[in-house]
Design brief:
Strand order of the largest sheet: 1-2-7-4
Organism: Salinimicrobium gaetbulicola
Strand content: 5-15%
Order of helices and strands: HEHHEEHEHEEEHEEHEHHHHH
Function: Catalyzes the conversion of epoxyqueuosine (oQ) to queuosine (Q), which is a hypermodified base found in the wobble positions of tRNA(Asp), tRNA(Asn), tRNA(His) and tRNA(Tyr).
Distance between the termini: 63 Å
Active site: 131
Protein name: Epoxyqueuosine reductase
Shape: globular
Binding site for cob(II)alamin: 60, 131, 152, 155, 213, 238-239
Radius of gyration: 20 Å
Length: 308
């Protein structure tokens, strides 16, 4: 076994031990296919008020500009599919926000993986990324064979569905590289047909500025009145295009206690949400990504749903 193959096997075994669903590796190089897509997305203002998407164009497409001397992108998936979901007749939050903010949970695991590499392999320079830096996570995961980009632009896996987080380690180490898998969306249009705001403007193209997640999380202004009645009771994020995806019938509950929801969360009714106090908000979402929208943002969204 050559050195690259040996290191690759060690890294993948440790990733599995740390609880990652899967690990794929690709060569750190310019993402040629993604450049025109990203340019087009920005040119057509599909990022809405997410102005940060316009920054670091080169770095988004070339990992060697992010991590000097980088040779490999290690992509990792972490399951967040919950065993139990919210009650039916209530205002909804995306499943990824049920428990502790994933940034902290994944960053911790990535640090452990990098530390393991340094202990087992030697001097390895690299950085961990969890969607908070200019890295095209899904493109790298697809390039390294962890799934394909579906018609809803989520990463899909035949074995796992799509309820998982994507993260990377970009390192200055030569490894063995995986190959992309084929697309298995076929003629299915379930996600396109089900999107409440018609944000999937055509297969494989989402207008981010029309997405319920964008409105309920990213948009800081008043919610547009023309969207009243279209949010399908989502008050933070939206899972519709994932819930209807046939591949998600293969989703299995995660085994990460930190992703378990606060007990009160699952039983709250619409009335409970409409009467939520800042104290209850802080208690239920103490470590959750929902804190991003703050109490004022969540109550704005709830009021909008109530008035719809």
């Amino acid at each position: 076994m050559n050195t690259a193959a040996k290191y690759t096997a060690q890294i993948k075994a440790e990733a599995e031990r740390l609880g990652f669903l899967s690990c794929g590796i690709s060569k750190a190089e310019f993402l040629e296919d993604e450049a025109p897509r990203l340019e087009n997305y920005l040119k057509n203002n599909m990022h809405g008020e997410m102005r940060y998407m316009e920054n670091h164009f080169d770095k988004r497409l070339d990992p060697t500009k992010l991590v000097e001397g980088s040779k490999s992108v290690i992509s990792l998936l972490l399951n967040y599919y919950p065993e139990t979901t919210q009650r039916e007749d209530t205002y909804k939050i995306s499943k990824y926000t049920y428990g502790t903010d994933y940034h902290f949970v994944i960053k911790d695991k990535l640090k452990h993986l990098l530390e393991f590499m340094r202990q087992e392999i030697g001097e390895v320079d690299g950085r961990a990324f969890v969607d908070s830096a200019p890295v095209l996570d899904k493109a790298w995961a697809a390039k390294s064979g962890l799934g394909w980009i579906g018609k809803n632009t989520n990463l899909l896996s035949k074995k796992l569905g799509s309820f998982f987080f994507v993260a990377e380690l970009i390192v200055d180490l030569e490894l063995e590289y995986d190959s992309p898998v084929t697309d298995h969306c076929g003629s299915c249009t379930a996600c396109i047909d089900a999107c409440p705001t018609d944000a999937i403007v055509e297969p494989y193209k989402v207008d981010g500025s029309k997405c319920i997640s964008y409105f309920t999380i990213e948009l800081k202004d008043q919610l547009p009145t023309e969207m009243k009645g279209k949010f399908d009771d989502w008050m933070f994020g939206c899972d519709v295009c994932q819930d209807v995806c046939p591949w998600n019938r293969f989703s299995k509950p995660h085994s990460q206690p930190l992703f378990d929801p606060h007990p009160e969360l699952l039983s709250m009714s619409k009335k409970d949400w409409e009467e939520i106090t800042e104290e209850t908000f802080r208690k239920i979402f103490k470590k959750s990504a929902v804190k991003r929208t703050k109490f004022s943002g969540l109550t704005r969204n709830i009021q909008f749903l109530k008035d719809s």
